[in-house]
Amino acid sequence: MVSRWLVVGLWVLASSCGGTKRTTADDPEADAGEATVSGSGELVIEVVGADVLGTDIPADGRSRVPIEVRSATGELATGDVVLSMNRAGGRFEPATVSLTPDGASTLFIPCDDDDDGCEGPLTLNATLADDDEVVGSTDVEIVSPSSAVGWPTACLGDEIVIQLDGNNWILDATETITQGRFHGAAYAGPDAAGPVTSVGFHVVPADLLQGAYWDLGFSTGSDELPLEVGVYEMTTFAGGQGLPTMEVYGDARSCTPTGRFELIRLETAPHPCDNGPCSPLVTDAVVSFEQYCVDDGVPPEDELLSGCVHFVNHKLDPAWCPDLAPPGAGDALVATSPEIEMSVRGSDELGLDLPADGHTRVPVVLHRTGGSIEPISVALSSSRGAGRFEPATVELGDDDAVVAYVPCDSCDPDCTGEVTLAVADVGATGEVLGTIDVTLVDPAHVGWPQECLTATNTFHLYSPFDGVFDGDLEVETGDWTHTSANDRVSVTVDPADVEAMGPWHTRFRSAGAAALVAGVYDDALAFGDGDPAFPGLEVLREGSGCKETTGRFEVLDIATDGEDLSSVTVAFEQHCGDPDLAGVSVPEWEEGWFQGCVRYTAP
């Protein structure tokens, strides 16, 4: 479907309302500064997100501002702490927290602008439960709601996230979506040569319980008024009213919306495609919003859909223009003072040539080599923007961390070749702490089956969404059986763990009745009723199956004792859908796929 927000750029309005700018910590005009500590200075009170949003808190009576309390000296501190204010300016939920060595957290909800004396300076205090002495404080400013929209800390961490908090018929729940298919686009006039006047985002969540899709669109409402950082009030969806426009909807549930939104950050890049004109690329955007559904012309104040979106595009999406190199091409990543050792799990057996198929998850291990075990936040990246990490940031302590590196697709230009994977300090220095060099190759192999290289019997399966299975599954214990012939092998496992929802059947067949030997079998069709001129493949849970099975598999090793099977290891990738759709911009068959492997040793 075409998202409705894409048409807003066609409306030419006689006038439009601009935005007011939030005072942020990195604004030269700001006076946010760092949190101040008073009293005995034993504790630090930190407003989470103040490094991006500043400490001006909107007086809307509902924003939930996360507050963290911790020791000022780094020494272990425990006990109950009571949060209070130097005047009536809001409330804490809860007002009493139990301090642990890791600190404690609570929420501050500001007063409402309609309350007398709400706006102005406010000091947040911390006292020990058994003592009235203030042991820590921080200063904030309660400001007019027109200065900011909410407190979108949920969208300041992960690079791809949509947070929705609703109590109306579009959504009556809170959802934080970080996994799925995300698209972001900007509109800069019909010839793509004007200022960016609107941005929009489309997401298909990996978890269907979070909705089939969501669309979010934000615009100045005029082709001539650029969309700039600031707050946009009294939005509407109807054109020609001289107002900004906004709509957030999903699952075919929408309404006549009004509300307000704040553009906190927007970075775009020209789209030098040769089949244009093409709209600019959104490379980094943060937007917070409050939307009401108008009922008989009056917005019901108790029916609000609020939230935020953070969208970062490290790699050009072939669904928009498929003939461009990833951003960052040629950037060098060098560890100036290596402190973290990076390794690819399974590389001893599989090497460091990674399949550039756009979806294989390659496990990368992060190991701290220094003596310090102080936790540190690190970010993962790749040279040339070739691929992505899931997650892109992690907290690393004394234990190793494992993240998934997903290579780019070899169909994308400049994807294959040498790539440096890097880990860097998230702090102000951004220092690169470790690297590893890999090579992205055309996917001659199937997936990255490191789970099936050691154990005697193993079945592993991963899928972001599929009708047969959704998630990450690994089975080692259970009842294992097999059947085999010269050209085929079938392995079934009934897991000991009932949550693994077995039995699971895996079936593989060569083409044309040839012997099944080690190697890659491309263009596989359904095992049972597929054309015998093609290899056969089927992985399914009993009672379920694919509407139309296609895929490929690789026999890593197979051994027989006469006519009896001794052992077999197979990596597979199976799709449930129509392979003829592979060329469309959002390939439907990619919605139903999974990868995995099976290793079996006969008793």
Sequence-ordered SSE layout with sheet pairings:
Blueprint: E1 43-47, H1 50-53, E2 56-58, E3 65-71, E4 79-85, E5 90-93, E6 96-99, E7 104-110, E8 120-128, E9 134-143, E10 160-166, E11 174-177, E12 180-187, E13 198-205, E14 214-219, E15 230-236, E16 245-250, E17 257-269, E18 281-293, E19 304-312, E20 340-344, H2 347-350, E21 353-355, E22 362-368, E23 376-382, E24 388-390, E25 393-396, E26 401-406, E27 417-425, E28 432-441, E29 458-465, E30 471-475, E31 478-485, E32 488-495, E33 504-509, E34 519-526, E35 536-541, E36 549-561, E37 564-576, E38 593-601
- The amount of beta strand, in percent, is over 45%
Assign the structural class, choosing from mainly alpha, mainly beta, alpha/beta, alpha+beta, or little secondary structure.
mainly beta
Distance between the termini: 53 Å
Low-pLDDT stretches are 1-21, 23-40, 316-332, 578-591
Radius of gyration, in angstroms, nearest whole number: 27 Å
Shape: globular
Mean pLDDT, to the nearest integer, reads 78
**Number of DSSP strands?**
38
Sheet with the most strands: spatial strand order: 30-29-38-37-36-34-35-33-32-31
Helix content: under 10%
Give the number of domains: 4
Describe the sheet with the most strands. Answer: 10 strands, mixed
Number of helices: 2
